[in-house]
NAD(P)/FAD-dependent oxidoreductase
Amino acid sequence: MKKVVIIGGGTAGTMMANALAKGMGEKLKNGDVSVTMISDKKEHLYQPGLLYIPFGLKTEEEIIRPVKEVVSPLIDIVFDEATQFSTEQKQVKTKSGKTFSYDYLIIATGSRPAVEEVPGLEEAGHIFYTLDGAKKLQKAMEEFEGGNVVMAVGLPHKCPVAPLEFTMMFDDWAREKGIREKTNITYCYPLQKPYGTESVAKLATKEYTERNINIETFFMIDHVDAEKKEVVALDDTRVPFDLLVMIPPHKGADVTVKSSLTDNDEGWLPTDRQYLNHVDHDNIFVIGDATNLPISKAGSTAHFEVEILAENLISMIDGGQANKRYNGKVFCFIETGLHKATYIAFNYEQPPKPVTPSKAVHWAKLSYNNAHWINLKGIL
């Protein structure tokens, strides 16, 4: 029997499990192949939905479902936390003390906002990249009646366009609430422009200028001064706030940060950009946010990676070759307010080119959000 072990029950891990179940159904039923997915959570959270929670546009119930409901019954699901990889023995050890052997290992452990990396943030600021954070921010916004609002961004982070989306959505929200005239919005970004890619930076600059949103560039976050209510950069630039929303730098999961498979302090795993295997191991693959690939850490990235890897892995299990190559394809919707959106599509070679924002694209994004659960199962 060939054994496949998937670490992670988020979007990447779940899509991969379902793709293998779809492509190897008979082999799984006959016991020729087994696929085990180890997830440290029993509920699947649709992370892009967190953007809408602070604005009251989505509820907790709409973006969460039990993992068992979204994973094929042909997959063995283990609710535990992977704590160690033993590549020589081809084993994964878990927090409960169990050991799982594999012929092929797929690491889809995602990323997390490293709030602890920014002193003062937890005390005086807000994030919306976790469910608890998004709900707390929603409450703070309900009580907000005007003042200095700061969106401060650290790098790297998943869903790179989300800070842009939140800022423009907040602008619309403040206008509809009737408090925009007494609200000052500042966007702080660590690079020369408000986004790392020229075309998206140009879009953001245009939108922010029209909306009277301040842009503070080369702003590399150091800490939050909770007493003075200021966010402070490494060069001691200080921006005052009454409401601080921050995207702290992200890190990989603890198991990858501590693993010998990584070559950096953040826990990103060195991954072949075409075949998605770990650069030092032909039987270990990395998908989703856990890779060190020079592309966005986003759900669509995982989707396109899974399409390639699932077909290659099935071929390898059958004794064939991995012939499909991932070209870095990514597709991202970008909300440009509460009622309009644009999108970008790009890959390793072709940079993104945002289309003109429109209501039609906004509704397309909302439809895509609602279709996540179908997409997760590999039906779309």
In short: The radius of gyration is 21 Å. The first strand starts at residue 2 and ends at 7. Residues 136-249 form a domain with the FAD/NAD(P)-binding domain fold (CATH 3.50.50.60). The longest helix spans residues 299-317.
